[in-house]
Q: What sequence folds into this?
């Protein structure tokens, strides 16, 4: 099954760019105790990710309707977000006010959510042929 | 509502349901004839179905991508007519087997003498 589509790769590139900007902004604002800006940044980051997810997800589905109930995009988001967080920590770029353990907890709780999503994904795959829903195959 | 109007309305409703899924059959049939690019498939489908089937190129591309993904259709690129290279689609071995099995189970029924007689019978 083709998991890594052109639109998913484009989404991942945009997500990494947005993630790096967010990480930089977050550490910068926290370092300078600009807490209201952290909220603004987080809101923009949410809207940005929602936007690129919507745009590339829709294009992906129009191009090839893989019935994955959004799992591939969710998994990519999880993976890249946590890699960026780890890289940020590894290079010592976290603000002194950032608690590294929070990153770990986010990864654990989010990972549990992702695991539940994966179970539903596996169940959904039973009604597909090579990832395409049997209902959509000859519509 | 007069009988003629009712007949027309029922016929349209029936045809709308009947045509769902028919596009696949017409696409496969066009490729059984030989390799084709999208515009040729579109022309074949519309002309050979006496324009009872219509299809948009986008819809054809979407279907062909699905069929290619599952391995019943593939393409090779060839020269376009003074333009960019075209994708010439064809049925794979699996695609041919699928179409033949479908015809055997669903189309050849209509070759049965009794059914042919009923189809030609006028009340």
A:
């Amino acid at each position: 099954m083709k998991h890594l589509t052109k639109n998913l790769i484009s989404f991942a590139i945009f997500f990494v760019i947005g993630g790096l900007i967010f990480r930089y902004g977050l550490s910068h604002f926290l370092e300078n105790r600009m807490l209201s800006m952290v909220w603004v940044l987080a809101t923009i980051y949410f809207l940005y990710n929602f936007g690129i997810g919507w745009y590339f997800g829709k294009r992906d589905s129009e191009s090839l309707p893989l019935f994955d109930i959004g799992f591939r995009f969710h998994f990519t988001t999880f993976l890249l977000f946590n890699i960026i967080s780890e890289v940020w920590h590894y290079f010592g770029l976290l603000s002194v006010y950032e608690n590294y353990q929070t990153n770990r907890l986010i990864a654990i709780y989010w990972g549990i959510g992702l695991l539940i999503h994966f179970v539903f994904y596996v169940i959904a795959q039973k009604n597909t042929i090579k990832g395409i829903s049997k209902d959509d195959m000859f519509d | 509502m007069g009988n003629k109007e009712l007949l027309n309305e029922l016929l349209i409703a029936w045809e709308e349901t009947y045509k769902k899924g028919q596009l696949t059959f017409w696409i496969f049939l066009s490729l059984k004839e030989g390799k084709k690019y999208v515009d040729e498939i579109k022309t074949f489908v519309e002309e050979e179905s006496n324009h009872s089937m219509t299809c948009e190129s986008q819809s054809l591309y979407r279907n062909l991508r699905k069929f290619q993904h599952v391995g019943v259709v593939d393409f090779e690129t060839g020269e376009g007519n003074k333009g960019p290279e075209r994708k010439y689609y064809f049925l794979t071995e699996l695609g041919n087997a699928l179409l033949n099995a479908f015809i055997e189970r669903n189309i050849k029924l209509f070759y049965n003498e009794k059914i042919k007689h009923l189809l030609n019978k006028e009340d």
User: Anything to note?
Assistant: The interface with chain A takes residues 20-21, 24, 62, 65-66, 69-71 of chain B (CB under 8 Å). The CA atoms of residues 47 and 77 of chain B lie 25 Å apart. The helical segments of chain B are 3-19, 22-33, 38-48, 57-70, 93-107, 113-120.
